[in-house]
Amino acid sequence: MLKIICFLLFVIYSYTALLYSSKLFLNNIKRPRCIYTSTILNFIIVGIILKFEIIVYEWVFMVVYFILMCIQLKRIYNAEWVKNVFITLYFVINFFSVRLIYICIYSILKNTPIYMIVEDFNAITIVTILSFITVIIYMLLFLFFIPIKYIHMIVTDKENLKFAIGILISIYTFIIINTGNIHIEKNPMFIHILYIKSAVCAIIGFFTTSIYCYLFSKLQLYVVKAENIEKEIQQEEIVLKQLEYEANHDYFTSCLKRDVIYKKIDDILSGVPFFCIAFIDIDGLKTTNDVYGHDEGDFYIKAVADILNSEFIGKAIGRIGGDEFLVVLEHTDIYATMKCVIRCFERAENISKAFDKPYSTSISYGVVEITPDNNLSRDEIIKLADMQMYNFKKARKKNRK
User: Fold this and answer.
1) How many CB atoms lie within 10 A of CB 321?
2) Which of 199, 305, 353, 357 could form a disulfide with 97 if both were Cys (CB 3.0 to 4.6 A apart)?
3) Which secondary-structure segment (H or E) carries 340?
């Protein structure tokens, strides 16, 4: 009768273990046929043991059981070995720790030395039945009440998983070593305390390792989330800066828009102003557009804008019209400003030659210096710079004649 109960409980245990492992492996069964092969093989082995009442050394049973289960999980799920070993340890540590506790309890209740219990087939069958019942209940509680995400967090973190395996293998080896002399006839009764202590420490170590690895995995998850959030923030900052840039700059020349350059002047004037304004006008742009087309006109504008951007690095350059630019140079006197403007003028005259264009290229400019005793408004300052530019253009036309 005990053999039949033991065999039936083994069937239930095997089915529960399959559900248990499937949940751990995310139901990732790769080879369904291996389930039937493994099940039949296990039933045959257990049937032979029960039929012929074979007694196996406890440490041999523990090692063989671990190897067989690990191979079977690998065949069924085809997962990485590191995951197979980890989940196999989940089974064997709990099962053999519980089994060792029941061996000791049964020995105490029967007032019989432990070696007599493990070598008595009926006694060890009762112990195995109790172990199956306990582990089945444990696995069912796990399946229904423990969120599987806790285990997945450990299983999916390879470095953490390797650490956990190292600890669990040490625990399992500790159980094997402590049960190595369980079959020795001259073991005193107080050895029960050692074995129960070993089993309890193994179970506590198992759960402590699991909790630690879960917390570490959760911490790693938070770190990854924090890094992702940081990347998202950085991306958003880049997008915001890009949007801000597009809102403030002329898309074609990369110069500031009119409203932005005007506000820049207003901000300076609200304090103690000391700056220069250079009003730049592109000569002959209308003729270039009319004779050679707007593509050439666009090239002309862009070429002049590039010169201004390269000469007035770090200064506020604004495009205030189709062919008009305004440069604001804070804390710069008129002599330094004129040097930069003249370089721009010389480079602008060289555009047609440098790019082999059939039309002449040049700019006209007007420069105004603003000191702290200034009483002019922004519009008056721009108008004055525009007038200076117009006088420069007019003087050049006279010289050409």
Assistant:
1) 10
2) 199
3) helix 334-349
